[in-house]
Amino acid sequence: QVQLVESGGGLVQPGGSLRLSCAASGSIFSGGFSANNMAWYRQVPGKQRELVSSITSDGSTNYADSVKGRFTISRDNAKNTVYLQMNSLKPEDTAVYYCNVDRITFYHGGFRSFNYDYWGQGTQVTVSS
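Now predict its structure.
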């Protein structure tokens, strides 16, 4: 079964930068798999998880107003990996960041199958002086 593995979180000072990565791996099918829409969410204790940014399979992007101009989402389809470059970080960006894939297509013996709504384990981003 496919898993999403995140990396790149940590502690950074205000104004600093971090790059998050999320790689999908683990398919048992010989034909491999591909990810549809990929996204980053974040959550702070006591609040709902919020969408930070998303990217479609053909590269169209969307950003929350709070991160526009500071964060950049990108993906490598060959590696089924999504990235989030975060610049000019603010204390209010402090949260656990989660990656999400809304649908994965599995290829096997000329057939396709689908599975939905994958989440990573989360990575902590702390912005503090």
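The chain is about 0% helix and 55% strand.
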